[in-house]
Amino acid sequence: MADSLPRTLPASWYCNPQLYQLERRAVFLKAWYLLGPVVKFADSKEFQYEFAGVTLHAQQQIQEQASRVIVKTSEGSTVRSHVTSTGLLFTTVSDDAPSFKEYFPGLEDVLATVDFTKRPYRRSIGYPGHFNWKTMVDGYQECLHCAYTHPSFSELYPPHSYNVINYHNWSRHVADPAKPNDGLFLYLFPICTLNVYGGGMSLFRVNPTSDPGTTRMEFDYFNVDEGEKFEEYYKFVRQVAIEDFELCEKAQYNLERGIYAEGILNPVKETGVAYYQQRVLELCIERHQSEKQRKLLATRQDSRQARSQETRTILGSRALEIVTQ
Asked: Is 120 part of any domain?
């Protein structure tokens, strides 16, 4: 029975620098990233981001009497970006990424149900976390821990009815199946989330670093309210974020010390975790095999060139012998 249940990735995937570098090539350089609603860029201020070691600069510019957010690398090259019909900005970091619709099929239909320009940009916050990026995503993609870790959130959204529906490269979280339109909670593979409920909206990115045990957390907050009402909302969402943060640091501590190696996932309550981890594994295996094949072909090519050079050398030596006889 246990053999048929989904299993977690081994602890080494949370601690090994070489595995992170493989993830970087297989996952992050080919991904699309959510930068946020276009209202964040309304005052033409430049915002800086960094994904997979690639630094990006996003800024609203006026072109032909129309405003548009341009995303460029530090070298000045414009990267592909996409703005949904309801005002969400996504970006790539390299030409390796497929088209937006190919990467997130069906997502735009869901995003079309919310006008993301109606909630003004209020605040951003960022800080390092001593955990692997997957440690945080593991927690976001299930709510088994919510009743114990998030008592205030669980009062609004009882975890017994919490459900995660997985699509290609994204997941939708339904807090109450009887009220599917009560809020919008999305996970956007690999490291972005979007959370809309009431008059507020938040999104966060779990940015990996070259150290597999460290991430850079980035949060953006939007709300129809300002002043005291916004601060009440902000206090609530920050409390949930801090609870997750502390849980992740403790989990990473155990992973790095060998206390936990690999486990079984709940086939009903942890489908979101199983889906995204399988996606990471599939992409990394595919990349590893393609790199191995390219290396093999390059070795064969080098061998052929070496034999060809050896043949030319032998023929040249023989020709020299004939001439000098």
From this structure: yes
